[in-house]
Amino acid sequence: MPAIEYQGSSAPYSLIGRSILSIRRDQVHAMDTGHHYDAGLDQELDAFQRRVAVLFQDLAASDGGDELLSISWVRKLLDTFLGCQEEFCVILFNHRAAVGRPPLDRMIADFFERSVKALDVCNAIRDGIDHFRQWRKHLEIVLVALADPRQQRRGTLGEGQLRRARKSLTDLTLLMLDEKDAAGCVLSNRNRSFGRSSGSSSRDHHQHHRSSGGHFRSLSWSVSRSWSAARQLQAIAGNLAAPRGHEVVATSGLAVGVFTMSSVLLFVMWALVAAIPCQDRGLGIHFSVPRSYPWAAPILSLHERIVEESKKKDRKNSSGLLKEIQQIEKCTHHLTELMDAIKFPVTEEKEAGIRHWLEELAQVCESMKGGLDPLERQVREVFHRIVRSRTEGLDCLSHNPE
């Protein structure tokens, strides 16, 4: 699939989507191909780290309506990643003469390898977003069934309306339970990736097998049958350690920039897996960052808050920590309980309770309707940006002057 045009939701990222090579093409003549110390590099690296710190401090703040693990917060997280990566790649390109020299060449190669591992995470997250769309269809059926425009007065809910709504809620509950099981185990299904359209393979037809109760599993996953989100995160985190003093000196400080961006990559992929249903989810990675880094405090704070969220009683068995998932589970639980207890004719008290949770459900549907498509575009942009940055980075390495 060709890279798509994308415009982020945050103004500071107006450069997102442009080629790294085109951004600094007019600065090629200023590149230093020598081996001497670049006094300006320290300033660039300091500015980069401060920028990362500011962006994650903004994410850690509760102001602005971007509540932790909501769709809007996840979108802001992806904007942050794209902005950090943009600045990091510009630094590498500006100082590409040093990139091919040891030990920095090994560090850069390790970073690109981590980035490639993140591509499967992007595919799995995109699948999780597709699952939300399937859930939303059932929720919309409930809203339509219980909001018949012909019924204008209290106490007028009909048995047919409640029957249709209850059936859709039952279907949704089974679907979410199915996805919850899928999030905790390795499936044997394979669907599609960002590089293939949904109709590109005849194998897609047999992916949607029936689950218990005669209902279909909504979607399969675009990663292989043996793929695990938990193991993939462990692979991204593997051997990630802060550079030692001699490594910092040997790389003129660029090792710090590589470690910073590697940590950002790991945290963002981990947070996505925490929020959105993934095949074989797992959050138990070792995430240790020296607090001497200016961006360490906000990232570690976010990590701790997300871990604490995962330990809450009502979130332990959830298929994802996304705020909207919790709202869906809460609304459907209360609506099902109310409907199961209803006797006809429906009393005004019972109907008032149903109407209350319908309003909550309508708000969740509206949030999903306005947020899922932009969120998927951002995940796609992260995927394509990783691919493009790696290609351009390897090109710089291959043409690096000795």
Automatic annotation (TrEMBL):
Gene Ontology cellular-component annotations: membrane
Keyword Transmembrane helix: yes
Region (Disordered): 195-217
Pfam families per record: ROH1-like (PF05633)
Entry's localization field: Membrane
Family affiliation: Belongs to the ROH1 family.
Protein name, entry field: Uncharacterized protein LOC105038349
Encoding gene, per UniProt annotation: LOC105038349
